[in-house]
Amino acid sequence: MSLSGKVAVVTGAAAGIGKAFCEILHKNSATVVLLDVNESAGESLMDSLNEDGQNRALFLTCDVTSEQQLKGVFKIIAENFGGIDILCNNAGIVDEKNWEQTVDINLLGVIKGTYAALEHMSKLNGGRGGVIVNTASMAGIKPLISCPVYSATKSAVIGFSRAMAGASTMAGYGIRFNALCPALVQTELLTSLTDKLGQFTHLGETTRKLLEKHGVLSASEVAECLLELVTDESKNGEALMISFRGKMYTTFPSIEMEPK
Prior knowledge:
By secondary structure, the protein is an alpha/beta fold. The chain has helices at residues 16-27, 39-49, 67-81, 99-121, 148-171, 188-191, 204-214, 219-231, and strands at residues 7-11, 31-36, 57-61, 86-89, 130-135, 175-182, 239-243, 246-249.
C-alpha cells in the first residue's frame, strides 16, 4: 500500500516511538496528524515536519483517556482531510505506582481511540477502510516481572488487536488490525523506568540487569517495523515482535472448541 495521499493519525506523537512513527510516515508521503498532551513538543515536531513546505503535518492536543476529546479530534481530522486511512494507537506509560492511569492510557486509550476512529474509517460507516496498528510490547508476550500491570495492558492490547482483526474481516469494516511488540526501546519511558516501579521497586536491580543483558532498541528501528505493518496489505491480526536479535511474527495456538 502506497502512503501517498493517505491520512495517518498517531497518538503519543510528540516524543519517543510516536515521534519516530510520525517521521517515517511523513517521509513516505503520508499526511500525518499528531495527537499528544504535550503541546510544545507536538507543535515543535509539526513545525519540523512542515519545513519541506508541503504542510502535511498537523498537531492537535488530545488526551487519549478522554472519549470526548478523541471523538472531537477524529471528527476534525475527517472533516478537514476527507477521511482517515491509518491510526497508530501509540500513547503509553509505565507507572506501577499509578497503575490505574497505566490501564487508562495503555489499554482503555487504545480501545477508545479505535472505536472513535471506526466511526470514520469503517466502510460500514462510509469510510475508506485502512489499517490500525496498536503499540503493544514484548512484555505483553513475555511479562516483565517488575511491571505486572504494564505487562497486563500490553497483553490485552495484543488480544484486542487480534479480536478486532477477526471482527473486521467478518463484518466487512475494511480495516486491518495489527500489534507492534518491541522489546525495550531507548525513550524517556525507559530512562525513568526504575523510578516507576511502585511496590516492585525491590525488583529494580533485576530490571537493570535485563537492560544490560538484552540492550535496547532505537525508536527508528520500531518505526521501520510499523511501516511494514502499514504497507503490507497481507498483514492482519499479526503481532510483530522486535528485539535486538531482529523481528519475528508471533505464532498463536489454534484452538477449536467443539461442543460435547
